[in-house]
Amino acid sequence: MHTRGCRLEDYARAKQLPLEFLKGLHLTEISYHSAPAVRIPYRDASGQEVAVRFRTALFKGESTDNRFRWRHGSTPCLYGLWELREQRDVVLVEGESDTHTLWWHGIHAVGIPGASVWKEERDAPHLTRYDVIYVVIEPDQGGESMLQWVKKSGLRDRVRIIRLAGFKDVSAMHVAGPEHFAARWQQALHTSIAWSDEVSTQAESARENAWGKCEELARDPAILDRLATHLPHVGLVGVEREAKLLYLALTSRVFDRVISVVVKGPSSAGKSYLVETVLSFSCPTSYYSLTAMSELALVYGQEPLQHRMLVLTEADAMASDMVSYLIRSLLSEGYLRYETVVKTTEGYATVFIERPGPSGLIVTTTRDSLHPENETRLISITLADSQDQTRAILDALAREDQGDDVDRAPWIALQQWIAASDAQVTIPFSENLVGLIPPIAVRLRRDARLLLQLIRAHALLHQASRKRDDRGRVVATLQDYAVVRALVAEFMSEGVQATVPATMRETVTVVGLIQKRHGSASVSEVAVHLGIDHSSTSRRCAAAARRGYLGNGEMSRGRPARYVLADPLPQEQTILPTVEMVAASIGRAEADVCTCAPEIAEHDTPLPNESKARRRTHKIPAWSSRAWRQDLQSRQDSATASGRRWRVRRWQGWRRSRRGD
């Protein structure tokens, strides 16, 4: 036997297949780089040779696998297409030798030249005519690769998984005893399992494994508060609410509708570090992070997007209209469907590409607002730019002895456990809650859905301490709403402009004070009064101007803006009802705020203190529809009159400057 290369006779002896049988399959022996090799031709369905693979060695090397080489210009494809017949089933195996073995035993089979070589649009059409596709999974990395592409393939519902107990592959089972092969093969077919059962088995195994690592964390009645205690140890200060909201959004990826978030703030505010840190508390398979991408990367990419968060470290990555449109479609529809034209050997042909979702988006930006169509699909978080926040960050940086010693293993296992769980949650008080939200803006139609999804995400996160209904769904409680309300009440009110951020109100007030003394205010003057940098002040003033609360009193083009007051600031208005209001609406004086599972009923967690949320919004009684309309009309009339008076004053000032007064 040759120490180098692979002779056809040696190959036949090693696989215990007749030499003449292999020659009948058009296998030949050639010289490849001065050593013998087996030439294996690949033919299409019509019998035409379309590719050639050389087997240059019988066995793998110690560190690398150098057994195979493709002829220059060959494109990999399924092996045995010319042998496919019209019948109910077919067997798919990895490699040519397993295919040869099955053919020798009269079994209808086709081979894939490497577990990771499968290409859906090229290979799947050849197998769509079969009702059952048996896929042999080997007990190695190749077998795992086979399972990965089966999971994403449109053929998966027809697949039955075969595992050969005690043997690496089909060829090894044949070599171990050709006379016993038929019986062993029939036993393998009998014990094969449908793909759906394989998925259930894998999910249950993954769930049990993850539960063993995260049980103590999963039973914590306040998981988000526990996350907040870790933040100072990883260098995050003053962003507890933002981190909790991001973690809830990340948890929502398992739902049919995923929550998306945009993190805004000036340069160096810590946006990217906040996102990266929160992501580190989840499994890598839960998100797909990019710094930039081409216009059609989402369409042609191979990275799975289903039930994952797409993370863009800068909104400029979605600046083009095409990327922005594709992301909107992915978020709204839950999938991408794209048809294009490609050039083939037979001319031009249309190709239909589908990328399944659902997916969510986490993006950071220095801009104050995104494209309007994108802005309404995301929860907007703005990081503080105050002196107090800067001081807290500087103090954290000065702690030299503080290292990142947080054990993230339980957190990663928790997300794996949630992903393997049944993500069905019911909110028994949803109608009562939504009925108490004043319908003052069209955007609330979308924001109310986000609110309910956040409640579901919080309940799912705490499913170990929640009851399930008779349909197996996790039952959300007012405890879940209380936590979510504290996180998003301010953001939702700002989103529909029912309230004004404290920073914007502060900025407008300072402009008013300066205007009384100097007639208008420059950005530099406002920055001095606020005690923050010029860039942050400019962003604040521009945001207030976009909302109509400030105007530019500078008439000359190219001159720096001189801000003046415009529309009056609105009165604070509560959008989300308090927990007590929701409890009263469902006819209970005291709500059962923590419905715990029987095995941990001792965790009787009280409602969280809502004092912080109440500081941000003023509590008002439930309004009637007439009251909403009257208040809205009153505020609109006031804003219109104020705007008219400001325009008249600006025109009078311009006339006086023209006359030289």
How is this structure best summarized?
The chain has 661 residues and is an alpha/beta fold. Among the domains are: 1-75; 79-191, Dna Topoisomerase Vi A Subunit, Chain: A, domain 2; 202-420, P-loop containing nucleotide triphosphate hydrolases (Rossmann fold), CATH 3.40.50.300; 624-661.
Give an overview of the whole structure:
Among the domains are: 1-75; 79-191, Dna Topoisomerase Vi A Subunit, Chain: A, domain 2 (3-Layer(aba) Sandwich); 202-420, P-loop containing nucleotide triphosphate hydrolases (Rossmann fold), CATH 3.40.50.300; 624-661. The chain contains 25 helices and 20 strands. The chain has 661 residues and is of the alpha/beta class. It is elongated, with a radius of gyration of 32 Å. It starts with 7 loop residues before the first helix and ends with a helix. Helix content is 42%, strand content 15%. Helix 20 packs across helix 21.
Largest sheet: 5 strands, mixed
CATH fold-level label of the domain at 202-420:
Rossmann fold
Q: Quickly give the CATH architecture of the domain at 202-420.
A: 3-Layer(aba) Sandwich
The structural class is alpha/beta
- Rg (C-alpha, Å): 32 Å
Molecular shape? elongated
Instruction: Strand order, main sheet: write it out.
Output: 6-5-7-8-9
Q: What is the terminal separation in angstroms?
A: 109 Å
Number of strands: 20
β-strand percent reads 5-15%
Unreliable segments of 5+ consecutive residues:
593-626
What is the H level of CATH, i.e. the homologous superfamily of the domain at 202-420? Answer: P-loop containing nucleotide triphosphate hydrolases
CATH class of the domain at 202-420: Alpha Beta
The overall average pLDDT, rounded, is 84
In percent, how helical is the residue content? 40-55%
Counted by DSSP, the helix tally is 25
InterPro entries: P-loop_NTPase
Region (Disordered): 602-622
